[in-house]
């Protein structure tokens, strides 16, 4: 019975969070894409750290919005995983999970 209450409480918390998050406009998505795009030759780890230090953790996105960001890296496998999974999560979390699930040929270096 306690676990049922916990699940109901978590579900309500997620619904409340979803209500407070405003959808990104197309221009905001475009600006976010430009701001968080990986530069050719930049180490993936350096890019991730830069995204973290510049506020990617505070950018809450719906999965469809994250997918609309388009190609943030030169790695197809990473790009296709951005926006998969949780309905709403931070851009930082989506980037880290995308990189974590994609084996890079040269470790953390992007070609």
Task: Summarize the helices and strands and which ones pair or pack.
Elements: H1 2-20, H2 26-36, H3 44-53, E1 60-62, H4 63-68, H5 76-81, E2 88-90, H6 91-100
Antiparallel strand pairs: 1-2
Helix pairs in contact: 3-6
**Derived structural class:** mainly alpha
Gyration radius, to the nearest Å?
Answer: 16 Å
Shape: globular
Largest beta sheet, briefly?
2 strands, antiparallel
Q: Fraction of residues in helices?
A: 55-70%
Helix-strand topology string:
HHHEHHEH
Q: Alpha-carbon distance between the termini? A: 53 Å
**What percentage of the residues does DSSP assign to strands (E)?**
5-15%
The whole-number mean of residue pLDDT values reads 77
Poorly predicted spans: 14-20
The strand order across the widest sheet is 1-2
Q: Helical element count?
A: 6
- Strand tally, please? 2
What does the model show?
This protein is mainly alpha-helical. It is 56% helix and 5% strand.
Précis, in short:
The protein has about 110 residues and is mainly alpha-helical. The chain is built from 6 helices and 2 strands; from the N terminus they run αααβααβα. The chain has a two-stranded antiparallel sheet.
Record keyword descriptors for this entry.
single chain, 111 residues, mainly alpha, two-stranded antiparallel ribbon, 56% helix, globular
